[in-house]
Amino acid sequence: MKNLQNIGLLVLAAAIPLIAVLPLPDFWIAQLNYIGMYSMTVMGLVLLTGVGGLTSFGQAAFVGIGAYTTAWLTLNTGISPWLTLFIGMGLTAGSALLVGLITLRMSGHYLPLATIAWGLSLYYLMGNLDGLGKYDGLLGIKSLSIGDFDIGQGRAFFVLTWAILLCFAAALLHLLDSRAGRAIRSLKGGSQMAEAMGISTFRYKVTIFVLAALFASVAGWLLAHFQRTVNPSAFGLKMGIEYLFMAVVGGVGHVWGAIVGAGLIRLLEDQLQVLLPRLMGTSGSYEVIVFGIALVMVLKYLPDGLWSLVGRHLPKRPRPVDWQQAAPLAEREKPEAGALVLDVRKARMEFGGLVAVNDISFQIHAGQIVGLIGPNGAGKSTTFNIITGVLPATRGEVMFRNENISGLPSRDIAKRGMARTFQHVKMIADMTVLENVALGAHTRGSKGVLPAMLRANRSEEKQLFREAQRQLERVGMGEYLHEQAGNLAMGPQRLMEIARALCADPTLLLLDEPAAGLRHKEKQALADVLRQLKNEGMSILLVEHDMDLVMQICDHLVVMEFGTLLTQGPPAQIQQDPKVRAAYLGTEH
Ligand SMILES: Nc1ncnc2c1ncn2[C@@H]1O[C@H](COP(=O)(O)OP(=O)(O)OP(=O)(O)O)[C@@H](O)[C@H]1O
């Protein structure tokens, strides 16, 4: 896929000068200019909504901030418009940061509603400020120029706009294929898995919100100098909806979908505005009705947008393996064999009146496999969640390598060397196995969004992929590097999760029902992998219902029933314990 993305960028880079010199009528150049500017805002939405899963109706307001900043400053202060671009971006970043910090903790439908409220308030603010010309807006904005050369509104403007768009597309493609990009792509699946990989989901949400707003702001700056006038109608809620519409029609998850969507809607709108009133015999915004129907059809029959029609026919080439020579990632210092790794002290979890975990205590030492067993509803997963920081314990302490980690968020616990898998596999289905596993090494890298966009992250990326491949080979998944994770059967999916956890270079590995849904042979392969990890000095806590597997591989068992610790000890002893037999068979004891 990577090569194809580069081809896409090259095609666009070649098309820009070609179109500029072709004898196209001015009308088409103007259309292309609009499409370029719209595409910028829509590309921001691809990142925010398509990739990050955060729906915003308020992008037009950020276009407005960029446009009004340059309009007001160039008209009132005579400052260079090239400088106002950065002032506008600064103002946009500031306001997006503020709005983001307030609204991005909201989930479900609250976020889109908040963006509507934000879009509306900015629209009325622009329309009511005397200094901004109220609803008439500001007129007489100058064209952009370089020295004496006037960029104007024609071909030179086209080259400028599309060159910026090309840079945005390249930056976005680079970003999505990076450590930060994988973290952003993990946002859509809920925060639990990402946080367990040490990713601050909130920070990445705010980051993509600001980035999308900046894309919109640059489009606004261009629009002001293109139209030479600004007024609130171009930045209101209707336009906010239209940008979202372009993104959805084009393909909200694809960078190229932004251009397809913006192009199609702009051209259609223009044609329909002429055609429909003629057909109906009266004037009116009939195109909105057509768009409404078209959107419903697209959502029903082509939910991935029009780009998916093209994208699915493009050949998929595996990522070239160029990381063999990369330096290994630094490893954390490991505990001595037999040292105390985890000490759960009287952990308690109450859900209202229900005591799900009742003052449980147990320990895990380095190189030990401990099984946490018990009938359904015994409180195993809740104990797991207390240890990994998903749930804050009502009382009690969890000591990890002699540090009290009670109350820490799961990402901070992950950073300390505790890695986990999930009862129901959590992965990014449309990423390759290798990329999914590289996500596990997130905390071992440091390159953020900007280095990724500028491609200044190459050596670290190679290190991360080298580690991901190593861990996949360690669990016997070396054959699956380039497979799309969503296509894997349950067994390989679970092994992939283990490899992802191993990528974090953990001291303690927590596996939640790793054998669930596996066939006999796959279970044996899993047992071999776990034994091998133990021999390498790894400590493992296992929640598992498969008693054969548990008895085969565990050194120590902790048995729970109704939230309480029933007993603990070596498997042979537990197997003979009448209390345990009774708990499983449901007889009196
Ligand atoms: N978030 C929650 N709110 C209220 N009750 C909960 C919550 N999570 C778990 N419980 C309850 O706590 C008890 C223990 O549940 P838990 O999932 O920890 O058991 P388990 O041993 O992991 O079961 P299973 O083997 O079926 O996964 C159950 O009675 C469950 O209904």
From TrEMBL:
<feature type="transmembrane region" description="Helical">
    <location>
        <begin position="6"/>
        <end position="30"/>
    </location>
</feature>
<dbReference type="InterPro" id="IPR001851">
    <property type="entry name" value="ABC_transp_permease"/>
</dbReference>
<dbReference type="Pfam" id="PF00005">
    <property type="entry name" value="ABC_tran"/>
</dbReference>
<feature type="domain" description="ABC transporter">
    <location>
        <begin position="339"/>
        <end position="587"/>
    </location>
</feature>
<dbReference type="InterPro" id="IPR051120">
    <property type="entry name" value="ABC_AA/LPS_Transport"/>
</dbReference>
<feature type="transmembrane region" description="Helical">
    <location>
        <begin position="109"/>
        <end position="126"/>
    </location>
</feature>
<keyword id="KW-1003">Cell membrane</keyword>
<keyword id="KW-0812">Transmembrane</keyword>
<dbReference type="InterPro" id="IPR003439">
    <property type="entry name" value="ABC_transporter-like_ATP-bd"/>
</dbReference>
<feature type="transmembrane region" description="Helical">
    <location>
        <begin position="288"/>
        <end position="310"/>
    </location>
</feature>
<keyword id="KW-0067">ATP-binding</keyword>
<protein>
    <submittedName>
        <fullName>Branched-chain amino acid transport system permease protein</fullName>
    </submittedName>
</protein>
<dbReference type="InterPro" id="IPR043428">
    <property type="entry name" value="LivM-like"/>
</dbReference>
<keyword id="KW-0472">Membrane</keyword>
<feature type="transmembrane region" description="Helical">
    <location>
        <begin position="206"/>
        <end position="224"/>
    </location>
</feature>
<keyword id="KW-0547">Nucleotide-binding</keyword>
<feature type="transmembrane region" description="Helical">
    <location>
        <begin position="244"/>
        <end position="268"/>
    </location>
</feature>
<feature type="transmembrane region" description="Helical">
    <location>
        <begin position="156"/>
        <end position="176"/>
    </location>
</feature>
<dbReference type="InterPro" id="IPR032823">
    <property type="entry name" value="BCA_ABC_TP_C"/>
</dbReference>
<keyword id="KW-1133">Transmembrane helix</keyword>
<dbReference type="InterPro" id="IPR027417">
    <property type="entry name" value="P-loop_NTPase"/>
</dbReference>
<dbReference type="InterPro" id="IPR003593">
    <property type="entry name" value="AAA+_ATPase"/>
</dbReference>
<feature type="transmembrane region" description="Helical">
    <location>
        <begin position="79"/>
        <end position="102"/>
    </location>
</feature>
<feature type="transmembrane region" description="Helical">
    <location>
        <begin position="42"/>
        <end position="67"/>
    </location>
</feature>
<dbReference type="Pfam" id="PF02653">
    <property type="entry name" value="BPD_transp_2"/>
</dbReference>
<dbReference type="Pfam" id="PF12399">
    <property type="entry name" value="BCA_ABC_TP_C"/>
</dbReference>
<keyword id="KW-0813">Transport</keyword>
